[in-house]
Design goal:
By secondary structure, the protein is of the alpha/beta class. It folds into two domains: about 15-20 and about 35-160 and about 310-395, Rossmann fold; about 160-305, 3-Layer(aba) Sandwich (Rossmann fold). Helix content is about 35%, strand content about 15%. The protein has 13 helices and 13 strands. Strands 6, 7, 8, 9, 10, 11, 12 and 13 form an eight-stranded mixed sheet that branches. The chain has a five-stranded parallel sheet with strand order 2-1-3-4-5. Helix 9 (about 285-290) links the parallel strand 9 (about 270-280) and strand 10 (about 300-305). The longest helix has 22 residues, at about 335-355. The chain is elongated, with a radius of gyration of 22 Å. The protein starts with 15 loop residues before the first helix and ends in a 7-residue tail after the last helix.
C-alpha cells in the first residue's frame, strides 16, 4: 500500500462537552445581524463556485445538495459574504450521466469557478479531467466515485463508501456468523464485498448477491440472500422466531426501498434476520415508509459518516435551512448528501477566511488549492468530522483510496422507529481500511 500514517493523533475531541462547544461557536455566527468572521465593510470581488448532483433520473437523485448550496450562499451573502467576498453558487444537473457530468465540469471551467463544492457524481473519470486541466479543486464531494479519493485536486471530507461498508461490517461482526451483502451489479459495486469483509474481520466473507441498480423487483435477490444466511422461507427458526447469527446488508442506494418492499413479503415466511446498511441507502424517511417500529428496519444497524440527524451539532445547518430554505422540500437535514454539502461549504468558508488573514484578496482556484495543500490550520467543522486538512502526512495508507484523510464513522440503530446513535462518538476505521486485503496482494 502507498501513503503514510498520521504521525500523531488527530486534534478531535469526541466527548459531549466538546460537541457543545463546537456547536456554540458555529451557532454564534447565526445570531444577530453581524457578518461572518473575516468579513469587511468594503466588498471584494465575488467568488464563483459550482455544486452539481443528479436530479430526475431512474437511478440516483440528490436534489438537496444544490439546494443546500444555494441556501448557504443566501445565508452568507445576507451577512456580508465570506471575508468580504459574496458567494456565487452555480448549480448543474449531471443527470447521472457521464456526458452530462463532463458538461457540468466544463461549465464550471467556462464560468471561472474557483472550486466545485459539495457535489455528487459517480462519473469521476468524466468530470475530474476537465477540473484537473483547469486546476479547479473538488472540495467535499459525496464520495461516489473512485477519482475523488485519488485525484490530487480532490479534498474529501469523509471516507466515502469504503469507510461506510467497512464500518457496517465491524458493526455486524459481533453477532453475525453468516452475512449476505446485496449490492448493485456495477463497477463501483464490485468493490463493496471486500470492504464489508474487511470490517467483518475474522468472520467468514459475506455472500455476494448482485442486483440490477435500476431494478423494480428484488424478490430473487431477497430469496438468494435469505438462503445464503440460512433463513430461506420454510427454514426452522429459533424459539424467538429468528435465525441466530444470520445477517443481511442491503446497500442499494435509492433502490434500497424497492428491495425492502420485496423483503417484507418474503420475510413473513422466513426466520427473522438482522439487518445492516449504510446511510444513503437507509435513512429516516425509508424507516417511516417501511412501517417504522413495526417494520423490517426496526433494530437495523446503520453506519454513517456523521453524527445522527438529531444531534445538536447539526443545529447551525438546520437554522440556515429554516432561515433560507423554509418549505424547500428538496432539502432534508437528515440526508447525508445535504450534510456533506454543508460540511464542504464550511470548509470553503474556512479556507477563504484563512486566505483573507494572509492578505490574499484575489481568490483563484490556485490560491484555494495551495491553501488546502499547505493545511496551515486544521479546519473545524463544528464536531461533525474530525478537524480536517489534506497535507501529505494527513493522507491515510488506504489502498485504492489514497486521498482519504477521515476514516471516522458513526454507528446508528433504528430504535422505536427512529434512527438514533448506537454509541457516543466516532469509530475510527483507519486500521481496518489500511489492513484490508485487496486484489493486489
Amino acid at each position: 500500500m502507498t501513503g503514510r500514517r498520521r504521525p500523531s493523533p488527530r486534534p478531535f475531541a469526541h466527548g459531549p462537552a466538546a460537541a457543545v462547544t463546537c456547536t456554540a461557536v458555529i451557532a454564534s455566527l447565526l445570531s444577530g445581524c453581524g457578518s461572518l468572521p473575516g468579513a469587511e465593510s468594503g466588498e471584494r470581488e465575488p467568488v464563483t463556485v459550482m455544486t452539481w448532483a443528479p436530479e430526475g433520473t431512474r437511478t440516483t437523485n440528490m436534489p438537496g445538495m444544490p439546494a443546500m448550496a444555494q441556501a448557504y450562499a443566501r445565508w452568507v451573502n445576507s451577512r456580508g459574504g465570506i471575508a468580504g467576498h459574496r458567494l456565487k453558487v452555480l448549480t448543474c444537473n449531471e443527470h447521472d450521466d457521464s456526458v452530462e457530468a463532463t458538461r457540468c465540469a466544463q461549465r464550471a471551467v467556462d464560468a471561472g469557478a474557483v472550486a466545485v463544492v459539495g457535489s455528487y457524481s459517480r462519473w469521476g473519470q468524466s468530470f475530474m479531467s476537465p477540473l484537473e486541466v483547469a486546476g479547479i479543486p473538488y472540495i467535499g464531494g459525496y464520495g461516489a466515485s473512485a477519482e475523488e479519493f485519488a485525484s490530487p485536486l480532490s479534498y474529501p471530507v469523509n471516507g466515502g463508501p469504503a469507510a461506510l461498508l467497512a464500518g457496517n461490517g465491524r458493526q455486524l461482526a459481533g453477532d453475525c456468523r453468516r452475512v449476505a451483502l446485496v449490492r448493485p451489479d456495477t463497477v463501483e459495486g464490485d468493490q463493496m464485498p471486500g470492504l464489508l469483509d474487511a470490517g467483518l474481520g475474522s468472520r467468514p466473507p459475506a455472500a455476494d448477491v448482485k442486483a440490477p441498480e435500476d431494478g423494480t423487483d428484488y424478490s430473487p435477490q431477497v430469496a438468494a440472500a435469505l438462503k445464503a444466511v440460512g433463513a430461506a422461507p420454510g427454514s426452522s427458526p429459533a424459539a424467538n422466531g429468528t435465525a441466530p447469527g444470520a445477517c443481511l446488508n442491503a446497500s442499494l442506494g435509492d433502490h434500497t426501498d424497492t428491495f425492502f418492499d420485496a423483503f417484507r413479503r418474503l420475510q413473513e415466511d422466513s426466520p427473522k434476520v438482522r439487518i445492516g446498511s449504510v446511510l444513503g441507502s437507509v435513512d429516516q424517511s425509508l424507516v417511516d415508509r417501511t412501517g417504522g417500529a413495526s417494520g423490517p428496519l426496526e433494530g437495523a444497524d446503520i453506519t454513517g459518516w456523521y453524527p445522527a440527524a438529531n444531534d445538536p451539532r447539526w443545529g447551525p445547518m438546520r437554522r440556515v435551512i429554516t432561515q433560507e430554505a423554509f418549505g424547500d422540500t428538496r432539502i432534508d437535514p437528515a440526508d447525508p448528501g445535504v450534510q456533506t454539502t454543508w460540511i464542504a461549504y464550511t470548509v470553503l468558508g474556512a479556507v477563504l477566511r484563512q486566505l483573507a488573514d494572509q492578505g490574499v484578496r484575489d481568490i483563484t482556484a490556485h490560491a484555494l488549492q495551495t491553501a488546502l495543500d499547505r493545511g496551515e490550520r486544521a479546519i473545524d467543522t463544528g464536531g461533525l468530522t474530525p478537524k480536517l486538512r489534506w497535507r501529505d502526512d494527513d493522507m491515510l495508507a488506504v489502498a485504492d483510496f489514497p486521498r482519504i484523510v477521515n476514516a471516522d464513522v458513526t454507528y446508528q440503530v433504528v430504535r422505536d422507529g427512529q434512527l438514533v446513535a448506537a454509541q457516543e462518538g466516532f469509530a475510527d476505521l483507519t486500521r481496518t481500511l489500511e489492513q484490508r486485503r485487496t486484489d493486489d496482494y
